[in-house]
Amino acid sequence: MKNKITYCLWFDPKTLGAEEAAKFYTGVFKNSKMTGITRNSIDTPSGKEGTVLTVGFNIEGQEFMGLNGGPEFKINPSISFFVHCKTEKEVVQLWEKLSENGTVLMPLDKYFFSKKYGWIQDKFGVSWQLILSEDKIKQVIVPSLLFVGKVYGKVKEAMKFYTSVFKDSGIGNVSPYGAGMDPEKKDSIAYAEFQLEKQWFSAMESAREHHFYFNEGLSFIVNCDTQKEIDGYWRKLSAVPEAEACGWLKDKYGVSWQIVPANISKLLQHKDSEKSKRVMKAIMKMKKLDMTSLENA
Fold it and tell me: What gap in Å lies between CA 133 and CA 186, rounded to an integer?
């Protein structure tokens, strides 16, 4: 069954593209597989007709999509992925593979919250928080949102907002920093978890200086079955009109979402190439996607 929410990673095919990334990740993680490729049916800012547009892959039951978007946006650590491991050996093995030509954000070591933990940004720019989990693992791969700068202190508010937008949602463990953690405010959030559409997410906030913020480099795709769904998510989530394009929007915290028909890949890869071209041309003209117009195309 397809996840309601897919994690979209933005790549520049002229450096390290989506196809290369998908092959790398499915080689790193044991329970993983490639799930499909879509190609540009017309010339677009992403690439020439016939070139790879997206590559789907699955890691531990979580669906990812690599997008060859070009040089405009770069993935940064504002959204990372926790990888919950059962053994120290697993943590170390993943660290060794993901650290190849990567950047260490927190060294692999023992911390008060875990006997084995490390935060690495891999060669594609994607950040992974590898952690030994001694409790029952609810979900192996969990995206983590880091609230900094203007959105520092808004984790609790954001979790209430997101869980009001999506079904099958709720807030789990919430751990504040407490006193004596300068420069953090004692009631700010060191770690929290919440669930959207039965998928787990986590959130943290930091008052320290950071040179990155939420951007289009890592977005969340919401797969919709009806136009009513698309309209509802669009109305509730979109907060930056100038960011609306081709099904993309940005919420009030700066997080990017793609609100799309669940069958969009099939529409873009129709066996009749002329139909695929018409669908792509229609998408390029839209802000919020219209399912009827796309199916008629």
Answer: 25
Pairing mode of beta strands 52-59, 256-261? unpaired
Q: Which residue has the higher pLDDT, 174 or 1?
A: 174
Burial environment of residue 268 by CB neighbours within 10 A (0 to 12, 13 to 18, 19 or more): buried
* Structural fold of domain 79-205: 3.30.720
Residue 218 has pLDDT above 60, yes or no: yes
* Whether the Cβ atoms of residue 258 and residue 247 lie closer than 8 Å to each other: yes
- Report the alpha-carbon distance of residue 255 to residue 239 in Å, rounded: 10
Helix axes 88-98, 18-28, angle to 10 degrees: 160
Percent of the chain with pLDDT over 70: 100
- Which superfamily does 5-71+216-296 belong to? 2,3-Dihydroxybiphenyl 1,2-Dioxygenase, domain 1 (3.10.180.10)
Strands of the chain (E only): list them: 5-11, 32-39, 52-59, 62-68, 79-85, 103-111, 114-121, 127-132, 141-147, 170-176, 189-196, 199-205, 218-224, 248-250, 256-261
Please say whether the dihedral angle defined by the alpha carbons of residues 179, 185, 186 and 189, taken in this order, is positive or negative: negative
Q: 């869980």: which residue's tokens?
A: 163
Q: Residue 198: which region, alpha, beta or left (left: phi > 0; alpha: psi -120 to 50)?
A: left
pTM strictly above 0.90:
yes
- From the list 240, 188, 196, 190, the residue with the least C-alpha distance to 216 is 240
Predicted confidence (pLDDT) per residue in 158-213, tens digit: 999 999 999 999 999 999 998 888 899 988 999 999 999 999 999 999 999 999 99
